[in-house]
Amino acid sequence: MKINFLLLTVLFCTVNTIAQNTISGTVQSQTQEPISATIYIPQLEKGMVADFNGNYSISNIPDGTYTVIYSMLGYTTLSKKITLSENESHTEDIQLLESVVEMEEVIISTPFHKLQSDNVMKVERMSTDQIKATGAVSLAEGITNIAGVETISTGVGIGKPVIRGLSANRVLTYTQGVRLENQQFGGEHGLGVNDAGIESVEVIKGPASLLYGSDALGGVLYLNPERFAATGDFEADLNTTYYSNTVGTSSNFGAKTSSEKFKFLVRGAYVSHSDYKTGTGIRVTNTRFNEKDIKTGFGYQDTKLKSTLRYNYNRANIGIPEEIGVQTTAKTPLLPFQEIDNHIVSLDNTFFFTNSSLDAKMGYLFNDRSEFEETVDNAALRMQLNTFNYDVKYNFPQLGNFETIVGVQGMYQSNSNLGEEVLIPNATTTDFGILGTTHYHLEKIDFQAGLRLDIRKIDSEAAGTSGDDEYIAPLQQDFNSFNAAIGAKLDITENLVGRLNIASGFRAPNLAELTSNGVHEGTNRYEIGNPNLDNEQNIQTDLSLEFKNEHFEIAANGFYNALGNYIFISPTGETIEENPVFNYVQNDASLYGGEVGVHIHPHPLDWLHIESSFEMVRGELKDASNLPLLPANSLQNTLRIEFNDFRSIKTPYAFVGVKNTFKQDRISAFETESEGYNLVNLGAGLELVLKKLSIESGLTITNLLDTTYIAHLSRLKPDGIPNMGRNITFHLKVTL
Q1: Range of 445's domain?
Q2: pTM value?
Q3: ∠ Cα 80 262 231 (to 5°)
Q4: Are residues 89 and 212 in the same domain?
């Protein structure tokens, strides 16, 4: 017995002395003043904040080559490649340069996890703190502050992201590292994710099928969950926001703690809104909604394994507006309304080998969507969607300047109907994809390229009785696609960077497009699917130029997207039960446009920021007719002031912004023109630090002039119902 105990003790000590590498050093400014910078290793999700003397030490690091990020507000973010092996104690003393530009962050949605300045692909990123500062009521509304991103909205409770004119199943959403599946084909099926526990949003604007497979033809919305606490820390915070327009509140509480190997976090949120009020003072009946959300995570890490298990439960009750009726600030949805349950479980494992690693992600999602129309006792429409997906990638040892990844991805999904109405039949969908991508780095230029093969199989059951008008026949279809991407980033001069990317993408037809045969109540159309539809396939070229110096930044991004077999609905001229009949058909299409942004931060007036951005997208079918649901051109101008810290007052700021949305007269045959409008927004905020207590507050006024307007992508536009009027938002966050 004693011998066994001794052997176990020796084994335990041996395991825990393998590859106990350490990185330590100091962080200083150019004037050799110590900096309490954040040091973070993204591959390990491990980091710390340097002490007041600038000293740091991160231990328990596996053998391998890692990117270490050094960042601090007011300084240029620095990225260092460090190779460790055989219980090495590596010293890295860092000097950061002063900068008035915001800190850079590591981009997670691309395969090699680099800073945006080092990335071959242009990716936009926005933190949820920045989204809150805009006064947005929801995450779907907040992302519209990213150039090239808009939303198709039904009131303020339902929003679908639009990336450069493409939406629904053409834009893929990732959360907790797994693809989000929640019947996103539907026009009134929103994002379904609460912003509590989301750290930042990344947007890939263009084909990302190489990395994500089918449905990433138009781009990817990647939601990064909040990080665990730094090793040895405990954090707790309470957030609350009040919205004057909807008499609404959004509150959440979170706590997290980490030891050397174990990490834990939990966050709960509750959101409640009344009907929103337009610029005319009228409340839009049944745009009210409420939401309950809980997120939790557990992490474990040693020198051979990093494992993270996360769970998210979201319950949303969302009213579906039909007409202007009773004027009230009640928060319980009227009929008709949706009740949606989302469960997301994700497991992310990284296995570390000598100079290489294996990433294995798995996710299970359960979406239970009910729609109540005439009674709250029985759902007229109820669909349950079960999805299991996996993503396994092997990161090869770095060979010279080459970094290479190969992997497989897949999904198994089943859809079941439990209500009286059937929009799409019971069906199963199976995906499998294999991919390889490599990055080649030189002093002035970086190359990235990759190939991928995907296979999708759809099997659906019959719905209804054979011979009835609304009978849906069973379906068995296989789709496959071969895709590629190649790109380069060139440091043209010290201040000028160019990027060129060419990528293909695809989307297999969804069940609604293949099998529909009945009235879609949300659109008042009788839709007939087409089982002979083929893949949508596109090739997009992106070109971007960025110039930066200490006073001025300008970036220009242009794209051309050649889209084959674009799927859309077309009227037949017939009616069934007074509903116009539409068929799903295909034709080639093209989209083109881009974004231009300017940021002026004149030195030595480091507190002054003048920002401006313009976005445009055009889309046409092969016959030169316009594509539907194209965002109008818009120009956003912001004057922002960031004041110096004063004693306990940290990072005070104020801003005023004007968004000019131009007239949209490039419309499809089923749309009407939309007039232009101008919105004025302003806000201010600060952080008060009292020893270990931090209090952050912010006040934002959107649509300051209470302008009455109708956005082109509002689903309430056909009824002439305006968007939200003036809204005063007050946000408070207390952190221990």
Answers
A1: 198-735
A2: 0.93
A3: 45
A4: no
